[in-house]
Amino acid sequence: MAELTGKFTLEDLEAIVAARAAASPDTSYTAKLLADGPMKAAKKLGEEGVEAALAAVARDRENLTGEAADVLYHLLVVLRGADIPLSAVMEELQRRTGQSGLQEKASRQT
Ligand SMILES: N=c1c2ncn([C@@H]3O[C@H](COP(=O)(O)OP(=O)(O)OP(=O)(O)O)[C@@H](O)[C@H]3O)c2ncn1[C@@H]1O[C@H](COP(=O)(O)O)[C@@H](O)[C@H]1O
Fold first, then answer.
1. How many A from CA of 42 to the centre of ligand 1?
2. Which end of the chain has fewer CB atoms within 10 angstroms, the N or the C?
3. Whole domain around residue 35: which residue ranges?
4. What residue spans of 36-82 are helical by DSSP H?
5. What's the CA gap between 100 and 109, in Å, rounded?
6. What is the ipTM of this complex?
7. What is the pLDDT of residues 94-110, one digit of tens each?
8. Which CATH number characterizes residue 44's domain?
9. Reported confidence tier of residue 2, pLDDT bands at 50, 70, 90
């Protein structure tokens, strides 16, 4: 695998996931997850999300950091399986920057 220099970004991890998706499931966890179908990756994403939430409630910073990394990695695998680029998610997040979350919630309740 090519060595990455500089600040590691989610875009870097997305590129790694895309490259490993084409590998053999015998040599790549990413490829194995995708080969097992969308249910498997989605289930793992849900598990990691719950584990991250439990670590947050337990105020376990070290565990939360690791579980957060698991969540982000598995989310990128799920997005890859659904053919949704990270850029689409970032565009959606950028679109939301113009409004407070509380304003958005209030606009749905009227
Ligand atoms: N960031 C990750 C990453 N984070 C977590 N994981 C894997 O996600 C799995 C997490 O599952 P669990 O903690 O539940 O452990 P487990 O019980 O063994 O998992 P299951 O048997 O239930 O699937 C572990 O196998 C981790 O190794 C990751 N696997 C890969 N990556 C990245 O993807 C790259 C390519 O990996 P391969 O696709 O395996 O080549 C790696 O170099 C990393 O950059």
1. 14
2. C
3. 10-108
4. 38-57, 61-81
5. 15
6. 0.92
7. 999 988 888 888 888 86
8. 1.10.287.1080
9. low
